[in-house]
Design brief:
The chain has a two-stranded antiparallel sheet with strand order 1-2. Helices cover 73% and strands 3% of the residues. The chain has seven helices and two strands; from the N terminus they run ααββααααα. The radius of gyration is 17 Å and the shape is globular. It is mainly alpha-helical and 198 residues long.
Amino acid sequence: MKLGNIRAAMEPFPTPSSRLRLGLLTATATAVCYLLSYMANDWLFKQTEFTQGIAWIYLPAGVRLICTLLFAEAAMFGIFAASLLAASLYSLFPDDPVTTVGYALISALAPYLAYRFTLEGMDLRRSLVNLTTARLMTCVLLYALSNPLLQLIWFAFRGVSYHFWAGLIVMSIGDLVGSLIVVYLFKTLLSFLPFPHR
């Protein structure tokens, strides 16, 4: 996989203002990609929803993970902002800003925590040059299990009525399938780009 080549090519600029601009740009790009994937998922897989916000195929999960692998902390902010916007646009938690903010925080933190675990627990380099298929699959599985668990614990705490165990199974499958689709689509697209061999 050539994710490492992309990350290695994105060396930070030397000045703080340049780094800030790059961070804002990547956070914005992440937010746009996430929102587009959310809209595409709603259009393509609306009929596969278990209940509102829980689907058997969830493409935004893969976008969250890929963007976090590429952009790390900047992606976290982009995902948080896009999750707030998506929750508002699709009325996921009408008149409940606390649940909405918690949902957005978990949406942003879950892929980042999976990334950090892979970074530290599996000796992944921040440049991703040593991102193997095994490390990537570990990251995908960790994310596909942690995100639904954290979301559903939050929803149960807030009194949002989802069937916990059924919701956990469907969300985990949806996040896993969505992540795999996006990761392998991204990998296929990268195979057409002329990266230098190292």
